[in-house]
Amino acid sequence: MANKVHRVLLTNDDGLDAPGIVLLESVAKQLAEEVWIVAPATDRSGVSNSISLREPVRVTQQGPQKFAVHGTPADCVAVALRHIMAGSPPDLILSGINLGSNIGFETVLSGTVGAGISGTLLAIPSIALSQVKEQDAKIDWSVAERYALETISQLLDLQLPKECCLNVNFPDVAVDRVKGLKVTSQGMGKVTGLEVTPVPDPYGDEYFWIRVEHGELPKMSGSELEAVQEGYISVTPLSFERTSQEGKAQLQEQLRMQCFAAHSAQVLDSLTTPT
Questions:
Q1: What is the C-alpha separation between 130 and 112, in angstroms, rounded?
Q2: Could you tell me the CA-to-CA distances from 113 to 33, 170, 195, 205, 265 in Å, in that order?
Q3: Across residues 259-266, what is the average pLDDT?
Q4: pTM exceeds 0.85 for this model
Q5: Which residues are paired to 37 by β-bridges?
Q6: Neighbours of 79 (CB within 10 A)
């Protein structure tokens, strides 16, 4: 396969040596002439687009074109584009491959998606990739291993939309049951809340584990959850725009009625007040 891009930047939120980014590196080497890796030194899952504004970010070089950042995935993108690769920026950012899905509300929490969004903010086409798995189940990378190269290559053949990050989820199905690529909407996903578990430490004080709770929610037609459950690789274009159009319309209508009522009361008062 001919190189589709000159220079690609890899990052993630699972850490520099996570199996997903090792897999992604092998894929990227078949797509690009140069592969750069700038990723968190440790697991930084769940930090979204967080930027380290009030603390220093340290970077250590781990090999040729490979750097560990003691910070968030968004920090990694910022450091890579504005320092490490400032003179020769990448043509593409690939974030992942995440251990677990990034669907629905998970995309709001995701450092994998956060890195992609940060890349988009800095005008670099970005794709976030995740391998779906059941909560607490052992992950099976087979679908990502088989289809990541083909999926990214197919997306690069298209004119990628500006001002959005593409969010790709590989379904948790047998490789021969994958039906293809489907463009989807974010939808609700399966997140139902957050669980906080207190645990005593050896000194009698408590610390807390916070986990995302998953459950069964109504599937939205055309959503990424529906797609991966049907065996498709979902591709969702995510943007900075997060306005609830339904909520906006509801507030506008309530405000209009409130103003109408206030005006009507004022008119009525003027008619009944003696002069």
A1: 8
A2: 24, 14, 22, 35, 50
A3: 75
A4: yes
A5: 10, 66
A6: 21
